[in-house]
Amino acid sequence: MIEVDGLVRKFGDRAVLNDISFNVHRGDTLVIMGGSGCGKSTLLRHMIGSMNPTSGTVKLFGEDLTGMKERELIHIRLRFGMLFQSGALLASLTVGENVALPLLQHTDKSDDEIQDIVEQKLQMVGLTGFEDLRPDEISGGMKKRVGLARALALDPELLFSDEPTSGLDPIMTAVIDELTLKLTRGKGMTAVVVSHDMTSAFRIATRMIMLGHGGIVAQGTPDEIRASSNPEVQQFIKGEPDGPIPLNLSQEEHEHHQHVKPRPFVRARYRFHHKTG
Amino acid sequence: MVFIGVRAAPMVALTAFSVGVTLAMQAAHSLESLGAQMYIPDLVMLTLLREMGPVLIAVIVIGRSGSAVAAELGTMKVSEEIEALEVMAIDPVQFLVVPRFLAMMIMLPALTIFGNYIGILGGWAVCVFALDFNTAGYVLEALQSAEPWDLYSGMIKSVVFAWIVITIACNAGLTVEGGAEGVGQATTTSVVQALLAMLVMNAVLTGIFFFAG
């Protein structure tokens, strides 16, 4: 369903993504993990066609997105939904209008039908009765849930989510995970989720990828990841402060980080104590 | 449309009235020495229709609506709203720019006509209450001096200004990079660029009308 092949993305001289390749099959739920600034969101933007790679290809539904014009992207974009990190609701429209927007723009359904769909989608994310509020009147977590309802408005085959559960309370996180499971396992939807939330990630994933140093550090099923012998993976999924992943990168190091080999364990620890002490 | 046009009307009215009053008084002062006070209405009328009307109203609209459009679109850009529209296969230009463009193209000329009326009213106030004019004399003299072309040339300017203002504002908004600071910069840029472009274009258009007419 998604084929990423040899994807390289450079900002200036710095390769944020360096030779990334993976496939996502129909019905899979792929969770992309990795520390802040490792290129997760950049990777996601390449998959939805809003960024063009320096080299390599990204194929969605068998069609190559790279170099495609906006006009050609339209029919592909109608087949997937995207949940942005902040929800990205249009501030000038109400919650209901936001969810209705894709339906109004891309279908010829009647107002009543659209109203029904909007209510149903909002009910799915636990926001019945919020139609008439404006985005600035609801909390960040609610915005995210409205964003999800909007992403699902056209019943897409494929859903991209950028940190769907950050900022949600544990119960709402479970509700959203449950919903994701219902849509993927139940209805065969494919999902690509960028997440920091390990509990949620292991709950929904069928495959996982961990990014770091511009490349893929590890990939596999949740069980394989859990059993991984890679210390970086273990540090990340357990959320430990000490380990091979350097905490304090100076700007210069951040810029050159992608070019150098993974930092030796001892040096990283030294740096950690050095910078904080 | 309501924001660009209707809510700007009181401000436009006040400005235009002040300008009309000022023009009449200045004209009175200068023309008095020539003994040509009877031409005050002509001067007010022509200046307003050809220059002050279109330019001043454009200045107000740049400061008020142009900056607001740039700030609004800029905020939408940094809060991922524009990207969200693109991903939903909705063309941001069609969805956001076109309505604003149309509103500006209609409302700026409309405001200019409105401002012209108010300005002429300001001139009338000075002539009737402070100078030896009666209403009929003022209106007659003013109407006699102006030709349709004076109004049309002002209107042509106003349409061109509307196009300049909204294009610059939308462009500034949609090309914002990096957070709230970027939005602030884009807003300032849009005002400065639009003012400069508008004034240069005014000189060019006046030149064209002057040499062609």
Characterise this structure.
The complex is a heterodimer of chains A (277) and B (213). Chain A has 2 domains: 2-228, P-loop containing nucleotide triphosphate hydrolases (Rossmann fold, 3-Layer(aba) Sandwich); 241-277, no CATH class. Helices cover 39% and strands 22% of the residues of chain A. Chain A is built from 11 helices and 10 strands. Chain A has a 6-stranded mixed sheet, sandwiched between helices. In chain A, strand 7 (158-162), helix 6 (170-186) and strand 8 (190-194) form a beta-alpha-beta unit. The longest helix of chain A has 17 residues, at 170-186. The N and C termini of chain A lie far apart (49 Å). Residues 256-277 of chain A have low confidence and may be disordered. With 213 residues, chain B is mainly alpha-helical. Chain B has one domain (6-208). Chain B is built from 7 helices and no strands. The longest helix of chain B is centred in the N-terminal third of the chain and has 39 residues, at 40-78. The two termini of chain B are 34 Å apart.
Secondary-structure topology with pairs:
The complex is a heterodimer of chains A (277) and B (213).
Chain A (H helix, E strand, L loop, with lengths): L1 E10 L2 E11 L4 E5 L6 H8 L7 E6 L2 E2 L5 H8 L2 E4 L11 H12 L4 H14 L15 H12 L6 E5 L7 H17 L3 E5 L3 H7 L2 E6 L2 E6 L1 H5 L4 H8 L12 H6 L8 H12 L1
Parallel strand pairs in A: 3-8, 3-9, 6-7, 7-8
Antiparallel strand pairs in A: 1-2, 1-4, 4-5, 9-10
Chain B lengths: L8 H26 L5 H39 L2 H7 L4 H38 L5 H11 L2 H27 L4 H34 L1
Helix pairs in contact in B: 1-2, 1-4, 2-4, 2-5, 2-6, 2-7, 4-6, 6-7
Major interchain interface with per-chain residue totals: A-B, 22 and 15 residues
3D shape of chain B: elongated
Mean pLDDT of chain A: 83
Structural class of chain A: alpha/beta
Total discrete domains of chain B: 1
Question: Do you know the CATH architecture of the largest domain in chain A?
Answer: 3-Layer(aba) Sandwich
The quaternary structure here is: heterodimer
Low-confidence stretches of chain B: none
Structural classification of chain B: mainly alpha
Structure annotation, total helices of chain A: 11
What is the rounded distance between the termini of chain A? 49 Å
Radius of gyration of chain B: 20 Å
CATH fold description of the largest domain in chain A = Rossmann fold
Amino- and carboxy-terminal Cα gap of chain B: 34 Å
Order of helices and strands of chain A: EEEHEEHEHHHEHEHEEHHHH
Helicity range of chain A: 25-40%
Strand content of chain A: 15-25%
